[in-house]
Amino acid sequence: MTVDGIANNINLMMNLSATREGEASSRATAGAETANLGSIIDEARLSSLSPRLRNVLGQISEQGGSAIEALENNVSSLQGGFISTLHAKLEEAGIDLSEKLTLRLDEPSQLVVASSHPQAEAVQKILDASPELGEAFGEIASQSEIIRDIGNIQRVLSTRGGVAQYAQEDARDTGPSSYQVSLKGAMSHFCFTRNS
Fold first, then answer.
1. What does the pLDDT look like over 17-49, one tens digit per residue?
2. Which residue in 51, 54, 56, 86 has the fewest CB atoms around it within 10 Å?
3. Residues 6 or more apart whose Cβ sits within 8 Å of residue 24
4. d(Cα 36, Cα 3) in Å, to the nearest integer?
5. % of the chain with per-residue pLDDT over 70
6. Gyration radius of the chain's alpha carbons
7. How many angstroms separate the CA atoms of 133 and 139, rounded?
């Protein structure tokens, strides 16, 4: 099967969920963040194979969408559920978010505080007691990496000299990147950063 004109094996491991209007707003209801995060993870999880895979990819094709759009919808849904749940847990524990707080995956599904927040120890205890946050963040990171990689492949294929540019970027790559989220007040920012 082809995804955006590129024959690849990514479609064999995708478990994309069809997004329905109104689900995002119902998930944002206060007080149900933790319960909703589990269902969001289940709906948007990547797996080795799913019976829904052909159906979902068929729907994407019929609607004129792309696998990237479906993944971006999954990531957006996961990010919303993650941030809602995290904010609820931090507020409940009295954590002050007027100082920047950065979180990153240390091991698979193990979120750690990656900044010098004044309440870093208390935040880490919350993260350790909430494995669903690490699981959700792992899915966000995995699917974001696939989106980034597909975008890179598309740039190589659509740009004259793209392969040479890609090789130059690869030569400058000094190490692995990690995925992180930074929070301050009501703002949040998810991104890849270079490990030094």
1. 333 333 434 444 445 566 678 777 776 665 533
2. 51
3. 76, 77, 80
4. 30
5. 58
6. 18
7. 10
> Contact, 92 vs 85, CB < 8 A?
no
CA atoms of 42 and 122, how far apart (whole Å)? 28
d(CA 13, CA 68): 14
Distance CA 168, CA 111 (A): 32
User: Can you tell me the distance from the alpha carbon of 117 to that of 122, in angstroms, rounded to the nearest whole number?
Assistant: 10
Distance CA(111)–CA(131), nearest Å, equals 8
Q: Pairing mode, if any, of strands 2-3 and 101-107? A: unpaired
Q: Which of 70, 46, 66, 63 is nearest to 3 (CA)?
A: 66
> Which residue spans within 101-149 are E strands per DSSP?
101-107, 110-113
How far apart CA 141 and CA 169 sit, in angstroms, is 21
Q: What is the 3-state secondary structure (H, E, C) of 60-89?
A: HHHCCCCHHHHHHHHHHHHHHHHHHHHHHH
CA distance 22 to 45: 20
Token duo for residue 135: 């699981």
How far apart CA 194 and CA 30 sit, in angstroms, is 35
